[in-house]
Write a structure and sequence with these properties.
2 copies of one chain form a homodimer. In chain A, 55% of the residues lie in helices and 15% in strands. By secondary structure, chain A is α+β, with helices and mostly antiparallel strands. In chain A, strands 1-3-2 form a 3-stranded antiparallel sheet. In chain A, a hairpin with a 2-residue loop joins β2 and β3. The longest helix of chain A has 13 residues. Chains A and B meet through α1, α2 and α5 of A and α1, α2 and α5 of B. Chain A binds a DNA duplex through α3 and α4. Chains A, B: It holds the Pfam family HTH_20. Chains A, B: InterPro entries: ArsR-like_HTH, HTH_ArsR_DNA-bd_dom, HTH_MetalResp_TranReg, WH-like_DNA-bd_sf, WH_DNA-bd_sf. Chains A, B: Keywords: DNA-binding, Transcription, Transcription regulation.
DNA sequence: ACATCAATTAGACACATATCGAAACGTCGA
DNA sequence: TCGACGTTTCGATATGTGTCTAATTGATGT
């Protein structure tokens, strides 16, 4: 696992991203089906009682925080969990 | 270090508590001066550009999340970091 | 070209919350 | 008892944000 050094701003983005329960659920879902290909966006939607618009918003936040990577392919968007970012945040918390 | 099992609700409270940068600063400050006695509230205030009212509010949130323990003694309030809670949250994140 | 479908954007709304000033509360020393 | 001091509570305000509907974009198959 590569090591990432996070700025205060990035820490803040991650903390905010993790503060919404729905986003955490989404993260978990992406983390479970963690094939390299990434999880299709609509796949997530079928498991979360939420509009496509809302889901899109959450994914943008997760991406902004560096917690996921969005690979757009044609009309699809495949999500991949960026574990190094999550790990770096845990390291930050450990240092408190 | 004792182990704590957190409910979904508690996880959410912790995540929200950690989502505010000022609260994280406060946590750090409490964590540093981590003598068993606890850090006096006014000590924190002298390092954070914030009103007593606001500080009180943040401490209530941190306590609600189980991240600190407030020992009131006379007119003073001594804060102590509850590391087991923080650890439990990190364990939760690790399981994502 | 057209219809369809996945995803995004725009705009609106409701609700949460970080912050403050002012007032109240409780403790302690004079 | 009185005043000072640390802390809390109250009420108000401004900002942030999760959610929706509707409209838009972009790709794909017929």
């Amino acid at each position: 696992m590569e090591t990432v050094q996070l700025s205060t701003k990035e820490i803040q983005l991650i903390a905010k991203a993790l503060a919404d329960p729905r986003r955490v659920e989404i993260l978990k879902q992406i983390g479970e089906g963690c094939c390299d290909a990434g999880l299709p966006c609509s796949n997530i939607r079928s498991c979360q009682p939420v509009t496509a618009a809302t889901l899109s918003h959450h994914m943008k936040e997760l991406e902004r925080a560096g917690l996921i990577e969005i690979a757009r392919e044609g009309k699809f968007a495949n999500l991949k969990l960026r574990r190094p970012t999550l790990q770096a945040y845990m390291d930050y918390l450990k240092a408190i």
